[in-house]
Design a protein that fits this description.
Elements: H1 7-19, H2 32-40, H3 49-71, H4 95-106, E1 111-116, E2 131-139, E3 142-148, H5 155-175, H6 178-182, E4 191-198, H7 209-223, E5 231-238, H8 251-259, E6 262-263
Parallel strand pairs: 3-4, 4-5
Antiparallel strand pairs: 1-2, 2-3, 5-6
Length: about 270
């Protein structure tokens, strides 16, 4: 059992009007065709971002309560750490992993990578790899949670991935003890930005501006109901077109690219 068991079904339910027949088995939203169809059809009339966010959080809470009845565990102390993890893995040499490690290596201490979110919530063996690719500290109490993509998956599945991290973040703010929260800078944030960051061409075959807007509207309404002060938003962002994220870049190429990140839709300050 995972803390996020059932979330794929909740996401598929919201998009079923358009993607129910994509692929032989779920989750349907992760398939390339689904992202393309949701671009063509624009916002499905059935889609309700408020319900999506609330149901995802309820699902996580339900899974946690079930696990508590069995083990009464506390979360790992590594969850929500703000610490660089530059060690390279010989097993995972994907473009995303290589770029993530490169960014962690040469940037300031305001950048960290591989931030665990759910280790130990169910048992010691589950959700250890459910980690945020990159977290950037803009200033005190303001952080950006970044799902980094180069070639894999789709903008839609990446958006749902970073949204799951947001749900786990909200769960942690609700269910961690006061001392557990005080020990983590991230859990004391007043502003959280959710970002899908990818090469410019990653977005070529889709337009999910409607999804970005819907999630932002719902996140704003959701935060207004919380017992603590927190702002949260979501954006698709892109590296500059002249940056080859697949490989062959220098540290200086990466530095330059990070300074020139732009929103895919609308106007927003640089990262």
């Amino acid at each position: 059992m995972s803390i996020c068991d059932g979330i794929d079904e909740i996401i598929d339910e919201q998009f079923k009007e358009v993607i129910a027949n994509v692929g032989k088995k779920p989750p349907h939203y992760k398939r390339t065709k689904s992202c393309q169809l949701l671009t063509i059809s624009s916002r499905p009339s059935h889609f309700n971002a408020d319900k999506l966010i609330n149901n995802m959080l309820l699902c996580v809470k339900r899974n946690w309560l079930m696990s508590q009845q069995l083990s009464n565990r506390r979360p790992s102390k590594e969850n929500w750490r703000f610490k660089k993890m530059p060690k390279k893995s010989e097993k995972n040499k994907s473009p995303e992993k290589v770029l993530e490690k490169k960014i962690a290596e040469f940037t300031s201490n305001d950048w960290v990578n591989q931030v665990p979110t759910a280790s130990g919530l169910i048992n010691e063996n589950k959700d250890k790899k459910r980690s945020i690719d990159l977290v950037y500290k803009h200033r005190e109490y303001e952080y950006e949670l970044i799902e980094l993509k180069v070639e894999s998956n789709t903008p839609l599945s990446a958006a749902m991935e970073v949204l799951q991290y947001a749900i786990l973040y909200m769960f942690s703010r609700h269910h961690y003890t006061e001392s557990e929260q005080k020990a983590k800078k991230l859990l004391n944030a007043k502003k959280i930005h959710l970002t899908v960051l990818a090469p410019h061409k990653y977005y070529d075959e889709c337009n999910l501006e409607w999804l970005e807007q819907a999630l932002n509207d719902s996140l704003r309404r959701f935060m207004e109901t919380q017992p603590f002060k927190l702002e949260m938003d979501f954006h698709f962002k892109a590296f500059p077109q002249d940056f080859n994220a697949i490989g062959g870049y220098s540290d200086e190429d990466c530095r330059s690219a990070l300074k020139r990140i732009k929103p895919v839709y609308g106007l927003q300050k640089d990262l």
